[in-house]
Amino acid sequence: MQHIETLTGELEGCALSVEKLSTVKDDLDNLAAYLGVTDIQAILFVAILSQNFKKRHITIEHLSRFLGCTGIKVMKHLPDFKVLQKKRWIRADSDSQSKRSMLNDISFYVIREVFDRLMNGDGELEAAVQKDIYMLLSEFMDLAVDYDKDRISYYEMIEDMKELLKENHELPFLKLLGQQGLSEEEELLFMLVCQRTLTGDPEVDLDQAVRIVTGSPHEGIRIKRSIVREKSKLITNRLLKLQDGMFRSDNEIGLPDQAINQFFTEDADLLIKKSINANNMVKADAIPDVKLFFNESERQPMDQLQKLMSKKGYNGVVKRLKEQNLRSGFTVLLHGTPGTGKTEAVYQLARRSGRDVMKVDLSQTKSMWFGESEKKIKEIFNQYRALLSYSQKTPILLFNEADGVFGARRELKDSSTSQTFNTMQNILLEELEHFEGILMATTNLTSNFDHAFERRFLYKIEFSSPEESTRSKIWRSKILGLSVKIADALSQNFHLSGGQIENVTRKFHINKILYGHDLSYESLSSYCREERLTKKVHYTVGFKQTK
Fold first, then answer.
1. Which terminus of the chain has fewer CB atoms gathered within 10 Å of its CB, N or C?
2. Where a domain ends, among 256, 273, 290?
3. Mind listing the pLDDT tens digit for each residue in 175-196?
4. Any bridge partners for residue 440, and if so which?
5. What backbone phi and psi angles, to 5 degrees, belong to 444?
6. What is d(CA 95, CA 152) in angstroms, rounded to the nearest whole number?
7. For the segment 31-60, what is each residue's pLDDT rounded down to a tens digit?
8. Can you list the positions of beta strands (E) in 238-287?
9. Residue 218's domain spans which residues?
10. 22 Cβ contact list (under 8 Å, min separation 6)
11. Does any domain span residue 547?
12. What's the CA gap between 89 and 45, in Å, rounded?
């Protein structure tokens, strides 16, 4: 700073003549060497710095008056200003970069960071300390804000950003980003959204973001169009996602959970916005223990599933399948009579294997907006993949009453609704074809299923109505103290499903509290008769009912 102070007093009126500064030649040479520039460039730097204390932006007119020469003479040194800009000693006002700008629009200034480094004698700005990704994104955001507020030009933002990336190219974040095949603007857009996510603002206005990271309206429109039409690699590589809007505006973008897990591995659980509705997540340790009774035909495949879903069994099978270049995802369809315990079987498998369940609310797959239902189906699988990436144990994706989404495709002539439904089916078929993890679906109506889904389910287990011996076991498990005799009689005379037996049990306990009803065959049989909507009589011998 001593050299700068000495030179400042001599520069006024020097007409950019090094010869007129002979008395301070040593100071000029030392400063030029320190800055890594020529003597003339050092003079221009000191002139801008000294005048910056009086004015925010130093124009060609200001410099010509201070130096005592014509504006044309100062303009002849525009290449020297470029060198000072490239070395990041000075900044040019954003208007200075346009070829259409007026000559008196050209102006320069020195930022506080440069002054501080000069005061501390830190040397050239390129000698920066490597940053972590959080510091890097913070500095990038500072540059973006400066550009958005016209403090720096787009050119300067890009040049400074390149320097930051060059200085920190060893960061895993940047190495991974470089592998995505993105354009310069797309990389900047991704980094901007990352920074906004880190600061607690995961939903970013697309128009504003594109304006910040592009240098022209034409380029901004091109980037926005490719994102909205889902052609950009930011979307196809699942680095960004379009946020659903009430008015279908597609004007907000954010990081999908998969990208957060990929780029912020250690802190992913802190950054991920819990996009999976808490009502749709069932923790393994929150599932109550329920004893299930299966017919003999169901017991063997369910025992096999139980063994498969144990930690040792699952990991071993997945490893072996991958070694054989086979798909390692498990898709299971439990189908059959209503009330036979299909859904409860899924939960008990989850509880015993310690796996959380992500259950799909079918209403989430429907939308009032054309084209949104397809996106919602994709989002379900994206959310599951994100959950899979940070779960210690592979979770279960559960489609309950799955015939609502896995139904047979429709004739296209019906309506646009049929076209939307068929598009959803095609997405589901594609997702199941390449599925990784555990997917379980339950349905009462396999007749409604599209045949194309049959091959996509590795296991297909039919649940039939419980046999007489199985019903007796269910009765005794539901009502403590129920005698074998009464349980057998109820099982023999009433062909109820497990769900219906549970309804009878609940009704018995309610009436016992309200009216003090005793536990007897008569009271339970009356509830059994009430359970059936159709009054069908069951006989235990081989005679048909006569009219």
1. C
2. 273
3. 999 999 999 889 999 999 998 8
4. 332, 398
5. -95, -15
6. 9
7. 889 888 999 898 899 888 888 888 877 888
8. 241-242, 252-254, 281-282
9. 133-273
10. none
11. no
12. 8
